[in-house]
Amino acid sequence: MASPHGWKTSARGAAALFALGLLGVIALATYSVPALREIPELSALSYPTLVLLASVNSLLLLVVFVSLGAATAPRIGLTSHVFTWAAGGTPEWGEIRGSLPLALALGTGLFVLIAILDVVFAQFTGVTVGEPPGDADALADLLASIPMRLLYGGITEELLLRWGFMAPVAYGLWWVWNRIGEPSDVPSEPVLWVAIVVSAVMFGVGHLPALAATFELTTPLVIRTVVLNALAGLVFGWLFWRRSLETAMIAHAAFHVALVVTSVVLLVLF
User: Terminus of the chain with fewer CB atoms < 10 Å: N or C?
Assistant: First the structure.
């Protein structure tokens, strides 16, 4: 895959990925507005102001991590077809189509595996990953969360954790190894696996603040949350490495589709 180098072309690629990630930021902010309205100090603010307020942190993170990925991922052979296209290179769109069955299978299979493991962890935590059975309000909230799950979870989180974190970690380790060991043109498999594992653990840790807003964090609950999400992060990281960022995004979105479908069935039946 040909991808031109230079800060101008990289900036165009980064801008395209930022625009893609912005969809997720807006979806997350929109979903967060009802909760913000329940805060007395914010209840009088207009809807656009609340959306903007809910977007600030995510926008800053997106700018930083997309920029870090743009500066490192292309240098070590990690691929984003959107980035390559916007940077004036030759994207291999057929790779996305060819990887679609694998991404869908892994994303769906991950949900099944994690749901089973969560049942095991529930013996120690009393908490499950899936949406619990409930009333019409729970169903309405679940449906309202779909854009956030697919766009922020499927796209923005991959930009932050894989493109913007995994790639810089792999690049940093590769840079260090080239100065203390035998130089290589691209990172070795062990280096990339370390980057995948580190980003997967951070992916798990990143879910703790949202969990803390609903449950009291106990040691078993923290371990369960980090382990289950890190397991998903390992798969998404491997797909980013072996296929492309877009393939990891599709798998991540497929995980949430499986979660939503299963949760809707449970909510309707029970």
Answer: C
